[in-house]
Amino acid sequence: MRTPLVMGNWKLNGTKDSVTALVNGLIEPAKAATGVQTAICPPVVFLGQVEALVGDAPIAYGAQDASVNTSGAFTGENSPVMLKEFGCTYSLVGHSERRQYHNETDEVVAAKFKAIQENGLVPVLCIGETLEENEAGKTEAVVETQLKAVIDLCGVEAFENAVIAYEPVWAIGTGKSATSEQAQAVHAHIRGWLASQNASVAEKVQILYGGSVKAATAKELFSQADIDGALVGGASLLADEFGAIIAAA
Ligand code: PEP
């Protein structure tokens, strides 16, 4: 059995005050949800504050991106070594907003995945198709290509210690979630495709769904056989709403 994981992606949001209120508001829901892993990905400037607020509460945290480099003349970057020092467990990698606005190719994403993992963090690889690709019937081919770039560099065994987040780009921040049946079909395809390379890795890897997840839709999504939790954007900024999603898992 795979443990459900509910992860919040705060994107470029937060103030010192809102971070304090949000983390404090998540401690009870996270404690109450035994058997569910809770995680948050704040902007890196808040990591020290999050580390102090979380204390020994069962809330893991991570970054939304990481540099492929560990140190040096790379202005504006955040090293996976630094993220580890701040207590991060995870780093997202290849979020569609990074692919779209920062031109991150599958090769760049794979190199970052490798750097994140080599420095002791769990990469959360975000994959998913655009609306155009979806309408052209290319969803399966797109997610395979995105996964293959990582497998070519790191091997399929790298997914022993990684998380996959399937996030159809057309569902992110649009209020238009994939139906649980649509999401399950893609998750099953991803797991089956991985299983054709390594059955035990495929069985173990957590595959999260992301794209306009709300408390009202979470239970139905989590009831699907291959949906092991969620990566939540907008709704993760509201303690009550995110708490209800954690409870649904
Ligand atoms: C995300 O940013 O990963 C995401 C899924 O956002 P939202 O839940 O707002 O669609």
Automatic annotation (TrEMBL):
The GO terms this record gives for MF are: isomerase activity
> What is this enzyme's catalytic activity, as reactions?
D-glyceraldehyde 3-phosphate = dihydroxyacetone phosphate
Q: Which UniProt keywords apply?
A: Cytoplasm, Gluconeogenesis, Glycolysis, Isomerase
Q: How does it assemble?
A: Homodimer.
Q: What does the entry list as the binding residues for substrate?
A: 9-11, 173, 212, 233-234
> What EC number(s) is this enzyme filed under?
5.3.1.1
Pfam families referenced in this protein's UniProt entry, alphabetically:
TIM
Which pathway does UniProt place it in?
A: Carbohydrate metabolism; erythritol degradation; Carbohydrate degradation; glycolysis; D-glyceraldehyde 3-phosphate from glycerone phosphate: step 1/1; Carbohydrate biosynthesis; gluconeogenesis
Function (record text): Involved in the gluconeogenesis. Catalyzes stereospecifically the conversion of dihydroxyacetone phosphate (DHAP) to D-glyceraldehyde-3-phosphate (G3P).
Q: Which domain of life is it from?
A: Bacteria
**Enzyme class, first EC level, given as a word:** isomerase
Q: What is this protein called?
A: Triosephosphate isomerase
The record's PROSITE patterns line, in alphabetical order, gives: TIM_1 (PS00171), TIM_2 (PS51440)
Give the UniProt subcellular location, in the record's own words: Cytoplasm
As for family, the record states: Belongs to the triosephosphate isomerase family.
User: Which stretches are transmembrane?
Assistant: none
Active site feature: 95, 167
